[in-house]
Amino acid sequence: MLFGIVSDPHVAPPDAEPYIWHNQLELSRSIELLETALEWLRGQQIDTLALLGDLTEAADAESFAVVRDRARSLNVPVIAVPGNCDVDSHDRSLTAFERMAEDGLSVAPASLLMEDGSAVELVGLAREPGSKRLTGVRATSHSARVRTILTHYPILDLESELIEAGFKHSGNLTNRAEIEASLRASGAPKVVIHGHLHIHDARISGNLLHLSCGALIEPPHQVSTIDLSIDGGSITVERQAHSVRTGDVERLPVFAPGHARWVWSDGMWREQ
To answer: Which terminus of the chain is less hemmed in, N or C, by CB atoms within 10 Å?
Structure first.
């Protein structure tokens, strides 16, 4: 299963003003960046396109329509999870995000059984009562031996390490620790793929292979493919990151190689 990964495109109207996170987010070029990323993925012959949240900057219906229409143009199944920017700032709903769903486009929360016998879990979001903080929402999972978890928010807590490295941390789910404990409980291999932090990173933590995907909207403007292959008791995961635009930036939030491969065998993950 070859996934095309687009995380944090922050699609916005052409007159949207830029702002700084780790580096500058040029919102006025968000649609251009999305189209360039999808064109690169078109040449990779992906099986499924995965959208890892913050699809829009302001959860407006017009921007969601742009993402949906551009994504569908690849003519492959599309799966999407919401990000914090995809939550309506006024009523805290995910109505506009949920309206993206149609034939060939599945949205979180969901658990999907794939042709290779693995399962893909899409983690949704909900507002914590009386708070602006968000909690992760999971669907009833298939009992597949191999599970890939697609989530906007990370499952591991990377806050202290990011701050120590001089970068910002954009927050965790209120139930992050509970989800982490649940994924660790069986000891079976899990591949977690997330966005939100606008960093490119990879961690092995017990049975979790935790892949952080860089943001499309800010340098290094990344899009990637993740190839998951199952052969008996062995699982191979290979990631290839690609920058759709380059420029002079003093510090990039990149903590791992762009191209890497990991194998699960004998009950543990190893990087090759």
So the answer is: C
